[in-house]
Automatic annotation (TrEMBL):
Membrane topology, record value: Single-pass type I membrane protein
Lineage: Eukaryota, Metazoa, Chordata, Craniata, Vertebrata
GO biological process: adaptive immune response; antigen processing and presentation of peptide or polysaccharide antigen via MHC class II
Domain MHC class II beta chain N-terminal: 18-92
Key words of the record: Adaptive immunity, Disulfide bond, Glycoprotein, Immunity, Membrane, MHC II, Transmembrane, Transmembrane helix
PANTHER family linked to this entry: HLA CLASS II HISTOCOMPATIBILITY ANTIGEN, DRB1 BETA CHAIN (PTHR19944:SF99), MHC CLASS II-RELATED (PTHR19944)
Main location: membrane
Superkingdom, taxonomy of origin: Eukaryota
Protein name per UniProt: MHC class II antigen
Cellular component annotations (GO), alphabetically ordered: MHC class II protein complex
């Protein structure tokens, strides 16, 4: 935090994200790595594309450097196996196999002056997963 009375001149933040997209269990897996600086994505690796892509001049410079390094590229291209498929058994119980039973309530909605007639029953089903 700044000293008392001083204002921040800017906030600079780096964020990296590693994502695994699973389709039909581990049959089709996609690995995505994102590099973000100051809320702007500047570099990304997508296993479906097979190489880094830059989105800013700095990102293009990094993409060119990473794509020409065989050690980095081997690490990225095999991440589907050593990172995604390896961690699937750990995350599956919280994502794929997650089941939350519905909470059901039935209540009587009395007639109103704007909608005369008999009351209505309202059935609410909430807080369940998966949606299907």
């Amino acid at each position: 935090p700044p000293a008392a009375g001083a204002e921040l001149s800017g906030v600079f933040q780096f964020m990296g994200s590693l994502e695994c997209h699973f389709i039909n269990g581990t049959e089709k897996v996609r690995f995505v790595e994102r590099h973000i600086y100051n809320r702007q994505q500047y570099l990304m690796f997508d296993s479906d594309v097979g190489h880094f892509v830059g989105f800013t001049p700095f990102g293009e410079l990094n993409a060119k450097s990473h794509n020409s390094d065989p050690v980095i590229m081997e690490n990225e291209r095999t991440a589907v196996d050593w990172y995604c498929r390896h961690n699937y058994p750990i995350v599956a119980p919280f994502s794929v196999e997650r089941r939350v039973p519905p909470s059901v309530s039935i209540s009587l909605v009395p007639p109103s002056s704007s909608q005369p007639g008999p009351g209505r029953l309202l059935c609410s089903v909430v807080d369940f997963y998966p949606a299907a």
